[in-house]
Amino acid sequence: MAADIAHTPDEARRDIARGARTIDYTPNAFNHQPARYYLLWLMLPAIIVLAGISLYPFFWLIYMSLHEVQLAPGKSDIWVGVDNFLRLFSDKKFASGWLTLFKYSALCLSIEVGLGVLVAVILNNSRLEKVLVTIFLMPMMMAPMVAGFLYMFLYNGTFGWYFWLLRSVGVLEGGTILGDRGWAMFAVVATDVWQWTPLIALITLAGLKRVPQDQLEAHMVDGAGEIRNFISVTLPNLYPFLLIAILLRFMDNFRFIDTILIMTGGGPANATKILPTYLFDVSFKFFELGRGAAIAFTLLLLTILLGLVLTKVFEDPARKLKTGGGG
């Protein structure tokens, strides 16, 4: 007896109920399953480009750090091994550059994170939120070099508005802002805070939109006030967003020297000469590219290690929150 062929799933079920033999029905697929390595082939051009612009400079950096680079035409580089690294242990400016860099980065991060979170909380769900966010983001759209020139004019001892204001209220008694060792660091930190606090606020504002409202309402029912609610519920939910913001600014503070070069050049008396500024002087003023490469390699290595530490610090509370151990 010829087998009855079912054309649809409903017909197949009816035929089975009658005891007829059926053939499984598989609908036609408009989008076929892509090959196993299809996505890899799509990303391959971008991977090659990123590898070319990342790996080549990295290996060239290692090569230069192990050589005394000769800039004269026709002369080959001289192999010195780890001498460039060993010289750093006796370089007082190298150690001073690290200390100044940590001081600069710590001041910038602490002030920017504090102000950024405060501004985000104020702007969140306000009536003019979109307008205020747009206005508040304007400093971030400015190039760091332009921001450096702007604040250099504001701090100018002849016509600077900030200089006049500080002298008028009696805070600054003599000298100039950028020419004073005590004021210069706070001047460049204030410039960085003015320009990059909006980035912290923007990322934090995005995190505030993701805070679960049911958790907030449950704590309010239990009698928690707004401050307690923020510390117990809102802040733990902001950990992943704060991690992104802090990592971005941490790496930028370890890389960007545009503003400092424009405003102080590392002065006065090396008061603002952070390690990247010293690296710039060694490599492009004194043309000691081998020693500069050694400094750059140590800077890169420590930046990666500190980034991993920051990630670990912020991941633990976030993991506890997800597993229900955060309280």
Detail the topology: elements first, then pairings.
Elements (H helix, E strand, L loop, with lengths): L8 H10 L19 H28 L1 E2 L9 E2 L3 H4 L5 H32 L5 H8 L7 H11 L6 H8 L12 H28 L4 H9 L4 H28 L4 H6 L11 H10 L4 H34 L5
Antiparallel strand pairs: 1-2
Helix pairs in contact: 2-13, 4-8, 4-10, 4-12, 6-8, 8-10, 9-10, 10-13, 12-13
Strand order of the largest sheet: 1-2
Structural classification: mainly alpha
Distance between the termini: 70 Å
Average of per-residue pLDDT values: 84
Number of strands: 2
The low-pLDDT segments are 1-6
Global Rg:
30 Å
The SSE order reads HHEEHHHHHHHHHHH
Q: How large a portion of the residues is in β-strands, by DSSP E? A: under 5%
Shape: flat
Question: Which range best describes the helical content: under 10%, 10-25%, 25-40%, 40-55%, 55-70% or over 70%?
Answer: 55-70%
CATH architecture of the largest domain: Orthogonal Bundle
Task: Tell me the CATH topology of the largest domain.
Answer: MetI-like fold
Total domain count:
2
Number of helices: 13
The quaternary structure here is single chain
Largest sheet: 2 strands, antiparallel
